[in-house]
Amino acid sequence: MSIQDNAKKLPIGRRIVRALRSLVGLKNDPIPVEHVKLNRSQYKNIWNAVSVSENDAKMAVSGYIDEDLYRQMGEGTRDMLQSYVGIGPDDVVLEIGAGVGRVGAALAPICKEWIGADVAENMLGHIRQRLAAFDNVRTVATSGFDLSAVPDASVDVVYSTVVFMHLEEWDRFNYIKEGFRILRPGGRMLVDNVDITSDLGWKFFEEHCAVPPFERPAQISKTSTPQELETYFKRAGYEAIEQVRAGLWIITYGRKPAAQEQPQEQPAEQQASSPAEEAQAAG
Fold this sequence. Notes:
single chain; Rossmann fold; eight-stranded mixed sheet; 11 helices; 8 strands; 37% helix; globular
């Protein structure tokens, strides 16, 4: 499968790259000891701890608190999703790792329902406050490993952006499988992560290597290869899988196969007889 190169589809620039670097202690700021001691898979503890206040939460998920930049980045992600998977007025859309609702604020006006799913109850509280003006916004608390609170075949679009870097590989795959489960036939899913095979991604990886092993915070960012994400989508059952390189990022998206209609049996009196049956009837 070929990989498209398009650095214009994700709202990525120097400011957001610097912000991502700041999330993992690549500045001179000391790393809180409690973040180092936590196990990486303790997602709920980690993300509730860093999201008590709205500004704390914004810094934890993006590395900046400027509202104008938040709006611009949310609109950029909306445009990217529109370009690759489409968002329509009748679509129910779910975000995995919704944070404080940066993207939800841009999507809620153009879809039927936007569902913000996050492991941190603190994050969900910030979403409800920030997006209170929308009556089509709903929040769902997750375990950090699945979407068990969401029914099968109930969503049209699932996406996760700037989240997979914080997840273990097993959990990335499980969310892609869960996305497949909750999608309606023909539904679409999109994820992204830092692409270690790109020059920017390799630089990002090397900078993280510089963090001493026993000082790495539990949520330190980890990269992906295009092949990793493509494999997850294939193994989960998606079709029409596409990938796009966009600067630092590798974007992967696919579609859940449409339901195949089963041929309806004709009533007995309308069923065609075989030649042998017709000959027997004639005799």
